[in-house]
Amino acid sequence: MQEIIKPITFFGLDDVNYPKYKTELIDLYTLSFTEGKHAQYIAPETIEASLDDIMRIGFGFIAFYKDKLIGAILCLSLKNDPDFPFDNHKDIDPEKTLYIADLMVDQDFRGRGVAQSLIEHLFKQSQPKPYTDAVIRVWDQNIPAVSLYKKLGFEEITAIFQTKLDKESKEPFEMKKNYMYKKL
Fold first, then answer.
1. Hey, CA dihedral for 143, 148, 149, 151, is it positive or negative?
2. Which CATH superfamily is domain 8-183 in?
3. pTM for this one?
4. Residues of the chain with pLDDT > 70: what percent?
5. Among 81, 105, 134, 160, which one is least packed by beta carbons within 10 Å?
6. Contact 52, 72 (CB under 8 A)
7. DSSP state of 6
């Protein structure tokens, strides 16, 4: 593991200041999900629409090291996740469950405590909010992320399969996504 980055400065992200950071967030999202080992093809307009949708009804935090945006965590109520298998989890209240829709870290800063710091900051800030539980969805092949979430107390509760497009060939492939749950 590389040296932990400190200090990280956090700023809240909402529909008011989102436009200021939108371009940087699109770039961060693009690099997080369309480059490297876990690459898939996502059309730029899809990325922008997804971020716009989340920020219209959700919130998040952005992390800076010095003056560089190095990470972001975007959240909303679980009731807004159309893919969650609610019928299989009647014990989870979608109104009181925080859904971590996206967690992104600049590739140059991965493995240096940024994702963990973002999650810990989120939970500290979210305690006064009406959330009693949290859920995050992760590709089962993203071992570093799965390991981190388990370390932070998340447990796998269910899985879904999504059809994605390969970055190079644009051929469809199945991606198993695990939902992981944590009581706050």
1. positive
2. Gcn5-related N-acetyltransferase (GNAT) (3.40.630.30)
3. 0.92
4. 96
5. 160
6. no
7. -
